[in-house]
Fold:
Amino acid sequence: EDKVVQSPLSLVVHEGDTVTLNCSYEVTNFRSLLWYKQEKKAPTFLFMLTSSGIEKKSGRLSSILDKKELFSILNITATQTGDSAVYLCAVEAAGSNYKLTFGKGTLLTVNP
Amino acid sequence: NAGVTQTPKFQVLKTGQSMTLQCAQDMNHEYMSWYRQDPGMGLRLIHYSVGAGITDQGEVPNGYNVSRSTTEDFPLRLLSAAPSQTSVYFCASSYGRASDTQYFGPGTRLTVL
Structure:
């Protein structure tokens, strides 16, 4: 059974801090790992990482994938109150093109 | 484009009642899916569809039925509601597969008494 574990489950920081969110996984025939941000409503897509794309960056957010150690991290620098959200990690297995296994998420709270 | 729409936004049911959660997308996406989200549990896949007429079970399919008669619509039916089905339900769609950028609907908050 595929497994995705995120840590920490929750995190409180002050504006301007840098945070690192972790996602470890156990999946047969890994294909891709995805990060989503969920504010009060539906998740929105952030990054997808695969064997051919193990590092992604968008503004203050960046993510890397370590396929050997089976984990990914999501970094957010110079955090803002608008970064407060649940961050979800999901993995896709090759041969299971249509199923994502999600972790439980990390609740990030950024205080002014 | 309206994107992915879901109705209703909120619903309260009594145990044993049945109902259908509606989901529609206007992006001509082949892949559609239903997730439920419970506190501290992330998203769990209920059913998914890779095109009109094709559906399959996800991680937690028991107590739910789906059909996909058109590309646009993917309704989720609760056959006999149970308190354990109290949850927030999200419908999502993407171009071809789950790892393509998925667009999520706004969610339906369901309470079963």
Observations:
- Chain B has a mean pLDDT of 94.
- The radius of gyration of chain B is 13 Å.
